[in-house]
Amino acid sequence: MSYARVHCVGLVGVTGHLVQVEADLAPGLPAVVVSGLPDTALHEARDRVRAAVVNSGQRWPNRRITINLLPADLPKYGSAFDLAIAAALLGGAGELPLTALDGVVLLGELGLDGTVRPVRGVLPMVTAAARAGLDRVVVTAAKAAEAAVIPGVRVRGVDTLHRLVSFVRDGAPLLEPPACPPPAPPAGPDLADVAGQALGRRALEVAAAGGHHLALLGPPGAGKTMLAERLPSILPELDDEAALEVTALHSIAGLLPPDGRLLRRPPFQAPHHTATVASLVGGGSGLARPGAVSLAHRGVLFLDEAAEFGKGALESLRQPLESGRVRLARARGGTEYPARVQLVLAANPCPCARPAGDVSCECTPLARRRYLGRLSGPLLDRIDVQITVPPVRAAELLATGVPTESSAVVGARVAAARSAAAQRWSPVGRRLNAEIPGPLLRRPPWRLSPADTAELRGRLDRGSLSARGFDCVIRLAWTIADLEGRPRPDHDDVREATGLRTGEES
């Protein structure tokens, strides 16, 4: 027999596609041809596979070898096809009876000595295999724990090509995936560490409960970074669907921990202010990799010293904040990554940034406008909560015996508020108040009474609030009502929401 076929999976963005690896061996001058839109790494697989086969004690067929990857119109990237190519080639040469690999997906990169090395993106690849109806997967031993988190899939590991050959030829056992360790207790900074800052703590709680974006302005040392870093500690754990999405993105980026467990805590990304557009939204030649906004999916993207970021980098976030997705167009095709994040901005009010705040500022009005002008109006208009964090007073910093709520206490209220919002919006397929479209909020039965929104409508008519800002205030009011346990917002909720949006009460 000169033809064989095995299964593999290719990735385009975060989506896996089942790929059939065909091998045909024909008489003629010895050569290896790889077809099916392979990238450079796949073209180089010819030499890797040849060395791995020979160094594993197998005979290399001196014939004309054609390797085809189906579907042929789907771009193929990376080295995850090496193991499947080697198995198909040996099967076509008559060295292996491939009946043992019927319906089995092979994923792994080959070293020249025949070792099977881990590849990125195993989790979304195994997810795609399960979606296609294939429930048996062979991966590198280092990635077996990661692949095993997909329910209903039987995962086995291999460390060498020789072990796979022994399994197919002689029925030798493959490696079992390691047992998943128990989840570690949540660790990290606690909200109880923040001294004072009642307004900042309230804004953080409202932002967490409704999934709202947050901007913190204030002098250095006021606690802006401390507050932002503690936002993940009051967010609920991710459900199964969100955990799979987040873990798949980190798998593609090669950032998963060795135990391969699902990421249950909301991710936190805090790129440096010198970050480029590509590092924020994703990029790279060939297959575009996810950026910080996608790695923070279902979590927090924190931009400290936001006014120091490049204008282009900041403006690149406007579309992902609206749509919750990043579409990266490249010459060989587009890639799409999810990017539903909570954006937190922290910035000083001016270049001199005196710790005492505005009372000791030495900057001219023009310098202040230019500094904060780097945060454009369209970007700030997408930030629901915008407050000014005042300097910490000595009495607050040195207070003893004054109980401060911990992240666990605040997180319980946030979880209860999110549960109420999810129950209310489940008929329209939404979960968070920040995700509700404005037109829905302005229609019965969710439309607030004219008496409760009179001041808000006046601001809209005077131009001090945009239509997007109007809807943001209504969403914030619903979140505040959820935190207080009320079925609908009242006039006081709308007033507090207006203050959090405009910063006037700070």
UniProtKB/TrEMBL annotation:
SUPFAM superfamilies: P-loop containing nucleoside triphosphate hydrolases, Ribosomal protein S5 domain 2-like. Residues 485-506 are annotated as: Disordered. InterPro entries: AAA+_ATPase (IPR003593), CHLI-like (IPR045006), Mg_chelat-rel (IPR004482), Mg_chelat-rel_C (IPR025158), Mg_chelatse_chII-like_cat_dom (IPR000523), P-loop_NTPase (IPR027417), Ribosomal_Su5_D2-typ_SF (IPR020568), Ribsml_uS5_D2-typ_fold_subgr (IPR014721). Transmembrane segments: none annotated. Residues 210-393 form the AAA+ ATPase domain. GO terms for molecular function: ATP binding. Belongs to the Mg-chelatase subunits D/I family. ComM subfamily. This is Mg chelatase-like protein.
